[in-house]
From TrEMBL:
This is UPF0187-domain-containing protein. It is found in: Cell membrane. The lineage of its organism: Eukaryota, Fungi, Dikarya, Ascomycota, Pezizomycotina. It comes from Lophiostoma macrostomum CBS 122681. One of its GO terms (molecular function) is chloride channel activity. Pfam families: Bestrophin_2. InterPro entries: YneE/VCCN1/2-like.
Length: 443
């Protein structure tokens, strides 16, 4: 079906629009009418997602994320930089290279600082065990985040399909019930967008992908947005700050929660408030008798409950990182091992210990930085989950569900194009409906 996703719902088109979107059995071909797109424009992303800004260079696109799933690179994995931890390792490797060179030159020209390999073996085992624990813990959190968003996509489809098909409009208020359905489907998309922004510490409602979906709701975030017109991200970061972030310098990185800390008004919990509105809608259609079976009511309430469970799980992942003591100990142990490595390698390798130490440092620090990056899978790093794409997919799926009116089964069961015996026979339903053919089928 070909329709303009930017079409708006104009007042003068209200009558035509409602007739086109009516879910009565008399109107089963809505694609012949004008159907407004009531979901956000596909692939419209957060104003805070810098890699999609037209004002940023391709250099920014290369080092900021999350990565776009539809992009294909023909470069072999060995030569790829996008998504690699190499940019964050440039400065640490320079430090390690300078330190190793100094140790080797001092040992060569002044006094031999070489030590036994015993320490290398013992510490190597401990470092490997620590990095394995760090990586497995971070990847587990990454996959938990992915499972949560997979569940959100599934429950969003189930809720939308249940409401769109099973909630029947009342004859005396068919138009109002239809518009209420559309509002509820919009709230499902709004919940996904609000959850994404909450996980990224973006608590307001001025972002382009959620503004039009929640501006009619009475929420704390909306009030705070109206009362605080001067918000974050007005001024782009300086050149040095940007480069510091690219290179992983901790002193150049901003506190991701600074927006929450600087808020002067209550920010509330926008996803939770949206669920409140969804629950009110479900209660209203249940009271009005729009659901003809109790199981439909149970499914609707269960879907809202699952959305709440997803919100709680993602909040747990976000706010329960690896205990700080573990993080500090692993970082210190890793650096101690790397810094004493040239003392142990020089005795056997000589000056070759310089590239050998750099290679070992790249491997060890690489795994450490990867674990640090994916520990929070909801941010803007290249390897983080593409939450914008997930939200767009949810909106697109709900568009598909609501793109056509609920059909009676006879419209497709009795179609002449229904090839009942494919691939054995190409006869349509009208052919097999014949009594003679029906007898053959029974035989």
């Amino acid at each position: 079906m070909d329709y303009d996703p930017r079409a708006s719902l104009h007042v003068e088109d209200d009558q035509q629009t409602l007739e086109a979107m009516s879910t009565s059995e008399e109107n089963l071909i809505p694609q012949k009418k004008h159907i407004p797109q009531f979901m956000p424009e596909p692939f419209i992303l957060s104003s805070n997602n810098k890699r999609h800004s037209n004002n940023n260079s391709s250099f920014d696109d290369y080092f900021l994320g999350p990565r776009e799933l539809d992009r294909h690179s023909k470069w072999p994995m060995l030569l790829r930089i996008h998504g690699s931890c190499l940019p964050e390792l440039v400065l640490p490797l320079l430090v390690v290279g300078g330190w190793t060179t100094a140790v080797c030159l001092f040992s060569r020209h002044i006094h031999d600082l070489g030590i036994s390999h015993t320490l290398l073996t013992v510490l190597g085992f401990v470092v490997a065990l620590s990095l394995s624990f760090r990586s497995s813990t971070a990847y587990e959190r990454y996959m938990e985040g992915r499972r949560a968003w997979t569940t959100l996509g599934m429950v969003s489809q189930n809720f939308a399909r249940n409401v769109w098909i099973n909630a029947v409009e009342r004859e005396e208020s068919a138009k109002e019930d239809l518009l209420a359905k559309i509002t509820a489907l919009n709230l499902v998309v709004a919940f996904a967008q609000a959850l994404k922004h909450r996980l990224r510490f973006e608590p307001y409602t001025h972002y382009s992908d959620i503004r039009d979906l929640v501006q009619h709701l009475d929420t704390f975030a909306k009030e705070a947005t109206e009362l605080e017109p001067h918000r974050e991200d007005r001024d782009p970061p300086s050149f040095w700050k940007s480069w510091g972030e690219y290179l992983g310098i901790s002193f150049a990185m901003s506190n991701p929660r600074k927006v929450l800390k600087r808020a002067k008004h209550p920010l509330g919990n926008l996803p939770l408030e949206i669920l409140n509105h969804l629950t009110v809608y479900v209660n209203n259609i249940m009271a009005a008798g729009c659901f003809k079976a109790n199981i439909y009511q149970t499914h609707a309430l269960s879907s809202v409950w699952i959305m709440h469970d997803i919100m709680a799980n993602t909040d747990r992942i976000l706010n329960t990182p690896l205990p700080l003591a573990y993080t500090i100990a692993i970082s210190q142990l890793t650096w101690v091992y790397i810094l004493i490595l040239p003392f142990q390698l020089y005795t056997t390798l000589g000056l070759v210990a310089i590239p050998g130490t750099l290679f070992a440092a790249y491997i060890i620090l690489g795994f450490a930085y990867i674990g640090q990056e994916i520990e929070n899978p909801f941010g803007h790093d290249v390897n983080d989950l593409p939450l914008d794409d997930f939200c767009n997919q949810i909106a697109a799926d709900i568009d598909i569900i609501a793109a056509s009116a609920p059909k009676d089964s006879e419209t497709f069961v009795k179609s002449k194009n229904n090839r009942l015996m494919h691939p054995l026979n190409h006869g349509g339903y009208d052919v097999w409906e014949d009594q003679k053919c029906a007898a053959e089928v029974e035989e």
